[in-house]
Amino acid sequence: MPKQPSSELIPKRVVDRIAVYYRYLQNMVDQGIDRISSKELSNMIGITASQLRQDLHFFGSFGQQGFGYRTEELLYRIKKLIGLDLRQSMVLIGAGNLGSAIASYESFVNKGFDLIGIFDSNPEVIGTAINGLLVQDVRELESFLQRNTVNIGIITAPASPAQGIADILSAGGVNAIWNYAPVKLIVPKHVTVEHIHLTDSLVSLVFQANIKKRGGISENS
Amino acid sequence: MPKQPSSELIPKRVVDRIAVYYRYLQNMVDQGIDRISSKELSNMIGITASQLRQDLHFFGSFGQQGFGYRTEELLYRIKKLIGLDLRQSMVLIGAGNLGSAIASYESFVNKGFDLIGIFDSNPEVIGTAINGLLVQDVRELESFLQRNTVNIGIITAPASPAQGIADILSAGGVNAIWNYAPVKLIVPKHVTVEHIHLTDSLVSLVFQANIKKRGGISENS
């Protein structure tokens, strides 16, 4: 029977962890570190050696006993696995404070992401430049998507217009949405949404700090 | 022998997951949903029933067979476990685009977080108001921390001043730092840092979208 790969085969937490491997490996290659042991790698990511072995299964096994991994080769395989061997073009909708901050984020370019369009509905913002890119009228988004191949749509607009923007993006061939708007988006099945919940990590921070203060988790805590 | 609880007892991924439980349960309580089955809860969070049981162990076991969980009770216990039964006071350093966006984030107040001070080094920004709060000179941060109890420091400054800011925060009694600056901070042992890597979730999004497009992970992908 032929193998039937499915997205179920790789849990979301492993997908998320592979993004972290990617960041660490990119840093190591940038710093000229050409080799890493599996122990160093698992310590760095904060997982066990057995989890690391399971994760690396997805990249194909190619480490050598007692030698470790060549960082460049591992990075290359991870990039290919993720799909970042091809550059990703992005549009951003909502050029307020958050949108401006994200549009100016320099790490994108090094990591394989190209922001090619910024859109807003505010006449005072349309026509201004952010990081060298003119803000366009959001009514132009649909025709922009007809003229350009866009992989990722970033929604930094408020909650109320977010669903309408997601509809235009989905209809325009965008199959990945990075959503900062505080609303759950309904999208066609072929579209993936990653919803950013900023407070999750803040809550996690409070919890970690309190665990430290209490000297651990106790039954009464 | 007395039980020796330690922070090792609860892995980071469980800490992070508990932040997600908190968000979902707060939403349910806000919507007036008063009961949830363990199956619904595990589906919602995207984990298995057995993982859920392990997680709930940290809150003490109190679900009833065939009845599920009272959302308000579960929320209360999670809040207490996290340490969010007490309000958290925060200062933010770096009132640029990202800092302004975070300072204006309305969800903080509902979730138990109070922003009580905003600081910047730019004379043009000092004295302006963000969300009703005056931006103060960062040189005032040290004395502000002497006069006020601050639980969390949010660093939205650029990389170069970030370590100096972290030093002032740590010396001033802040034991939790939410760091958006693209630099690894060195802090005393009692201080916890949660470093935000925005691109991690973008990379994860690309990966998820590509898994969908390919119809799964295959050995050759």
Explain this structure.
The structure is a homodimer of 221-residue chains. Chain A has 221 residues and is α/β, with parallel strands linked by helices. Chain A contains nine helices and nine strands. In chain A, the strands form two sheets. A seven-stranded mixed β-sheet of chain A has the order 5-6-4-3-7-8-9. In chain A, strands 1-2 form a two-stranded antiparallel ribbon. The model of chain A is unreliable at 1-8 (pLDDT under 50).
Structural class of chain A: alpha/beta
N- and C-termini, Cα separation of chain A:
52 Å
Largest sheet of chain A: 7 strands, mixed
Number of helices of chain A: 9
Largest sheet strand order of chain A: 5-6-4-3-7-8-9
Average pLDDT, all residues of chain A: 88
| pLDDT < 50 stretches of chain A | 1-8
Approximately what portion of the residues of chain A adopt beta-strand conformation?
A: 15-25%
Q: Which geometry of chain A do the CA atoms define?
A: globular
Helical amount of chain A: 40-55%
Radius of gyration of chain A from CA coordinates: 21 Å
- Largest binding interface between chains: A-B, 73 and 73 residues
Detail the topology: elements first, then pairings.
The structure is a homodimer of 221-residue chains.
Chain A: H1 12-30, E1 35-36, H2 38-45, H3 49-56, E2 69-70, H4 71-82, E3 88-93, H5 97-103, H6 107-111, E4 113-120, E5 129-130, E6 133-137, H7 141-147, E7 152-155, H8 159-171, E8 176-179, E9 192-195, H9 198-214
Parallel strand pairs in A: 3-4, 3-7, 4-6, 7-8, 8-9
Antiparallel strand pairs in A: 1-2, 5-6
